[in-house]
Amino acid sequence: MSIQLINQGFGGKLTKEQRKRSATGAQDALEYGVLPRVLGRQLRMAHLHVVKDAAMEVDGTSLSHGSFEILELLSHNPGIGHSRLATAIGLEKSSLVPVIVRLECLALVDRKLSPIDKRANELRITAKGRKALTRLRRYVLERDARLVSAIGMSEAEVETLNRLLKQITSADASHR
Question: What is the model's pTM?
Answer without folding.
Answer: 0.74
